[in-house]
Amino acid sequence: MLQYIKSYLGSNLTPGSAGNVFWAFVYIVAIFAGLSVAVIAMNWLERKILAHMQVRLGPMRVGPHGLLQPVADALKLLLKEDIMPAEADKLVFWLAPLIVVLAAFAVFTVVPFGPTHAVTDMNIGILFMLGVSSLGVLGVVMAGWASNSHYPLIGALRSSAQMVSYEVAMGLAVVSAVLMTSMNAQGTGTLSMIGIVQAQQQQAVWFIFKFFPLGFMAMGIFAIAMVAETNRAPFDLPEAESELTAGFHTEYSGFRWSLFFLAEYSAMIAVSSIAVTLWLGGWLRPFPNLLGGPRWDLVFSLVPGLSFLALGAMAAFNTFRMPRHSFFRVQTVGLALFGVLLAMIGVLMLVPGVRERVQDIFWFCFKVALFMYLYIWYRGTFPRYRFDQLMRVGWKVLLPAGLGVLILTAIVGVLV
Amino acid sequence: MVPITTTHYLVVAAALFVLGVIGVLTRRNVVIVLMSIELILNAVNLNLVAFSRMWGLHGQVFAIFVVVDAAAEAAVGLGILIAFFRNKETINMDEIDLLKW
Amino acid sequence: MNPVATPFFFYLLSTMAIVGGVMVIVRRNAVHSAIALIVTLLSVAGLYLMLYAPFVAGVQIIVYAGGIMVLFLFVIMLVNIDRSMKERTFNKQWWVAIVAAVALGALFVSVFVKSKGLFPERGLPLAEESNTQQIGLYLYGNYMFAFEIASLLLLVAIIGAVVMAKKRI
């Protein structure tokens, strides 16, 4: 048994490819836990960043700077009464959030956090990701229909029309990136997520910079389509609160609603990680060509630990800025402990054996975090689209643009 | 347990095909008739892919063409259904019996 | 690496597929039928994976489950199903259909029994790693003409669907 566990450690395969069930299970649990933490952190960050964009403070009361607010929210949601409308279709109403959550989490089996840090490496990886994440729309439609109420039904109709339309443009952008993987000496492309990143490593260029405006345009199309896919502002018509109360999940409450919430955020992380893998070099560190060589490798491998130390220093700085009053004593101590925790993680990441293993995961998560920040930024900046405008953008702008980029990429690839 | 052979897959495909035929012939709801046609196409696809395990990839390529065909059929069929529903306020097969109205 | 094609998964997936198929044709509510059909489609995709056809499985999930079934659910919501819920589920000739289907099933069984030796026990070991590349080569090589015809068919279908759904006929 112990031999079985140890036998994987030396290999340079993903647990799924090595056929090691134990480590695959460990990875699944780790990704699940990491995602839950990320969703909780995202909840807090979104509220704080939006608040600061609007020159407010945001949550401040529960915990230092509202750090415990998401925990309090989660507790509230779990303790809430679970209401099911009397006229609802019980089975479908029960099944819908389950499908949404399953679709949102299942895609993470192929997300490559590093050359070996993925649950498995499928040779249809990107196809699998797109396919399974498109199953989420089924759950949304079922939720809207099963509620047997008008707002959810309209929300579900909007959401299905929107997600199916933008999937087309998204697929075209993805195909143009997959086409770029085939432009090596052997002339064979790949659909595997790890293979795509390795292709970028081999060709020594991130696909966003390849054939300059083309890769960039493809990523732009994807970046717009993915906001629509995840029903976020400015394309959040399925849950536009001024028109439809809360859209397809109006009738949901308590735990079931929190499942929708969880699924929405993990779907956001999933599509962001597709974008990072396809165009931003996945786990590769930034500036591989400009700042190459072993010395810069060392510098970049120190970045994860140092950034956590910086976060810890920020917490420490804010600890000293806390009001000196006995009411705030618990919060001050809490913030100091949080800073110490962050600093300890940072120190751990600086240890030579650990930092080489951790830096891939760090760079991947860092790029995904940039996309998550973009999501919040959009929400704070853009007004909501009207539905016909949304459809027009999808079918008349993004789809032809995606086709054009695909054809041009193919032509340039043949010529170069 | 006996190892799984091609015949096993063919039996599953045959069962799906028969189910689809029953659905097409007995149901009155047009949407479900279209879904039964999808069942039939899936049975055919399963056969094709099962045979492609023996004879090379031609079966899989043809299965992809069948999927394309299914998508086209579903789109046109549902379009006709919506147009029909606008005029007659029903989606029953039995009541689609006029050539012109 | 252990083979995935274990009998257990085969029986599980095929049972799910057939039960889903039965639910499609016996449920009165069209949405329940659609959900049952989704179960069938996903199990069939699993069977494709067991047959070493990952690309077809991916296409099955992305086109059928993610595209066509969403279209079906969309249309079911647009057309009013309350009325058809109250009416008879099956038409008057249902017994003829059952007889025809049983005859068809008997035909299949006789074919399988008669041709037992014709189907080889084990297939060729298809290369799973290069499956997608191989299919691509076939699609753009041997089947180029069929591919173009298929794209034309899709174009016709798009136009047809738009005309049908948009205009007042």
Describe the structure.
The complex is a heterotrimer of chains A (416), B (101) and C (169). Chain A contains 16 helices and no strands. Chain A has helices spanning 2-9, 15-18, 21-53, 69-79, 90-106, 125-134, 136-146, 150-181, 193-203, 212-229, 241-244, 254-279, 294-321, 329-350, 352-381, 387-415. The relative contact order of chain A is 0.13. Chain B is mainly alpha-helical. Helices cover 77% and strands 0% of the residues of chain B. Chain B has helices at 6-26, 30-55, 58-88. In chain B, α1 (6-26) runs antiparallel to α2 (30-55) and α2 (30-55) runs antiparallel to α3. Chain B is elongated. The model of chain B has no long low-confidence stretch (mean pLDDT 84). By secondary structure, chain C is mainly alpha-helical. Helix content of chain C is 74%, strand content 0%. Chain C has helices spanning 7-26, 30-50, 54-78, 82-86, 94-114, 131-140, 144-166. In chain C, α2 (30-50) packs antiparallel against α3. The longest helix of chain C is centred in the middle third of the chain and has 25 residues, at 54-78. The termini of chain C are far apart. Chains in contact: A-C, B-C. The interface between B and C is large, with 76 and 90 residues.
Q: Give the structural class of chain B.
A: mainly alpha
- Give the H and E element order of chain B: HHH
Count helical runs of chain B: 3
Task: Classify the helix fraction of chain B into a percent range.
Answer: over 70%
For the record, give the distance between the C-alpha atoms at the N and C termini of chain C, rounded to a whole number: 59 Å
Number of strands of chain C: 0
Biggest sheet overview of chain C: none
